[in-house]
Please model this.
Amino acid sequence: MTDSDTTLALSTPPDDIDTVQDFVQRVLEPHPDIVDIDRFAFETALVELASNVIQHAAAGTGITCVLSIHADDHELSARISDTGTAGAVTLSGPVLPDDLAESGRELALIQMLVDSVHFERVGDRNVWTISRARHPLP
Model:
């Protein structure tokens, strides 16, 4: 597999999570050498992250995002940069809230599916990066 970098710029609205999911599938489709569990875990984590960004960072006003995906022989990684409001994000490990909580599972799920999750506020943008090491084909 050769290195590939792909970037999508989107604005919500009109773009939504379906736009993100279609993009992720389109980027990963030409790479049949990605083990199914890696593909599933990475895609699920990235779609969950994008959904979380669209839902929470937009604060009802809409946002602009730039999503970049990188795939090489060793790792799958993504970066989402958005114009959403600054949030109080704490990444302390994948801890699920109690059973009665109505939210708070998304970040824990994302952390369980990938090897690293990083968040920082850079200027007027929120920047998220995730990565997952790839397993060799059987």
